[in-house]
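User: Quick one: structure for sequence A, then sequence B.

Assistant: Sequence A:
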Amino acid sequence: MHITVKNLLAIQNNIKDHLKALNIKSHSKIIAVSKTFKIDKILPLIEYGHLNFGENKVQEAVEKWTEIKKTNSEIKLHMIGKLQTNKVKFAVKLFDYIHSVDSEKLAKKIADEQNKINKRIKIFLQVNIGDENQKSGVHKKEVNDLIYYCKQIDLDLVGLMCIPPANTDPEIYFAEMKELGHVLGLNELSMGMSSDYLKAAEYHSTYVRIGSSIFGQRL
């Protein structure tokens, strides 16, 4: 068994055991964050049957995944990085989920492009949960307005995404995101990475985004 598959299974078991010990009956799916890794590093996971992969640059994803997705239609590709409006046309063709919508301008561009090709992508709104000036995401107080706009233009809005501030305990932010999703009627959450995925799973994260713990450190 390839090391990446062993790592994936270990993480799955960690989540399962952690939630069982806490008597929590939720389940987090793993997005294998394959950004910067060559396809030969990713193939063992595909061959094993893993379906959810994350990329943060459109051009890199197009080069790596276009042919693979033609022959592996069940693979779900997640755009987890900042999406520039001039790349939306290419992203919409390839990706199944976009986790980083944070403005009406970007939402409108996605709606326009997916309507052209009769496709509906699942959308997460990225929330700037720590109010950090340098970080992308819609402010907590403006999330409701953006949700209303997305529904007006018929986006398939499924949930909220966040990246908590670095070097802090993420638990308070995960708890806040869970409550925010509940209040706003959005059932899915995209939160948690290699360093904090167990804590994210506790707060019912639908997807945890894990790169280095599966693939190793990037060069």
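Sequence B:
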Amino acid sequence: MTDTPPSEHVEAFRASLPPAYRKRFSLEASAEHAAVASARRTGPANVGVYQDGGQRVVCVVASDKPGAFAQTTAALAACGLEIASAETFVRSGPLDESLQLFWIEGDQRHVDAPDLTETIQAALLGVDRGSSTADVVAKRSKRGAFDTRVRFLEAEDGGLDTLEVETGDRSGLLATLTQVLFAAGVQIVRAQISTHEGRVSDRFTLAERDGRAIDAARRLELQVTVLKAVDLAS
């Protein structure tokens, strides 16, 4: 990947991210992420690929705009990459920048940072022009019905801003969910995506486009919308 940035740069990078990020990632991993962020400069996105144990990780640092995580996810799916898990964080400060991390399923050696950068930049520029996330469509496999649960979880402050989706794993599901949430007019503040033994547990911390909390009526509306999308993707 790119050259490792100085330790003070890595520390400043970590400080710009929420406590959950600093707890989750080591200095070594942060150095990988900081290098990608530093190389982005003024472009819409920059991509790096590194190894985390036996898995390849795609690190995307992009301008934090509505639909960015959805568009990146759809672009990766369109490139034929199966996502095993993912996380996204928003950096504080004047950058308006998001850090998106995707652990790729299996040994997919065709993961290439320059090619992915070009694809993701094009997708994000589509967001800038106001195009729909449906412009990039992920392939979905039809494997029958799944037991699905969609609910809002109570946060430590008592708020209900985290949507949890538990269902059977299938190709393109993450792209479908992020596109549906973007189309519903909410922004994904943070995402935690995990798979285990054929089941997915996806958690999306949500807010209205203007930053307001999701109220009770909207929570019900979003749950119904997501359930319908999961059903169509089965």
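The CA atoms of residues 181 and 187 lie 7 Å apart. The chain is about 35% helix and 30% strand.

User: Thanks, that's what I needed.
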